[in-house]
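Reply to dn_fold:

You asked what the input looked like. This is it:
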Amino acid sequence: MGSFLELEHVYVARGETVVLHDINLRVEAGEHIAVLGPNGCGKSTLIKTITCECYPLAQPGTRVSIFGRERWDLTELKRRLGVVSPELPGKPTLKTTGRDAVLTGFFSSSTLWPNLTVTPQMRARAEQVLELVGALTLAEKLVGEMSAGEQRRIMIGRALVGSGSFIGPTAPTAQMLLLDEPSNALDLAAQQGLREMLRRLARQGTGILLITHHIADILPEIERVVLMREGRIVADGPKAKLLTGPVLSELFRVDVRVVERDGFFHAG
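and this is what came back:
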């Protein structure tokens, strides 16, 4: 299937401060992987580096390859890469319906401007995506009238529809979905619904790169975990080896106890 991402000796600065230090990371296309670490450890900057919103410092040995290529037209890259982030540019306006919000994913726009042409094929694909993310009942509902959990479903649908992730009525191909703290601001019921939806996507072939500081977000389908602290990757390996009390206590610098239930890990 090939690699989705290859980072070699990557340093990234935000302003005058270097926030990512010597990042080396390889992710296969279609892989399910979680990046875990405390707030401020550089996880969101890593996402921005993958989506080419941040660029590495030019240094000998530095290399960034996405889907096997080191140079991308950003419009083309967005068609291959679905991103759900609190800081996502072009977020649909609150007066947009759920269906139209999903359709904006084809254009990375905040609304369906008059100059944008929506084809019948786009509308058919949007219906497929709405069904897949369990949001058909939200098609005519305004985004501003949705709960946080409903909005999150629509935003994931928006990310999927523009990434070329469907080859049939319900089956996604092995494209990549990048999720930056997806459960933030969701209540317990919405978190559970979100996780069930993401599990369904993972089982149907969508690759998932999950950025989080909540270990409960890490799906049973995710087997590999990358731990980050202070802008560095401090561990990369099997979930069962890294999601332990001693490892997480050192990572978060508090006493952590871990229990596993139904494939999910929980910290206490």
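Helices lie at 43-50, 74-80, 98-103, 120-132, 148-161, 188-203, 239-242, 245-252.
Hope that clears it up.
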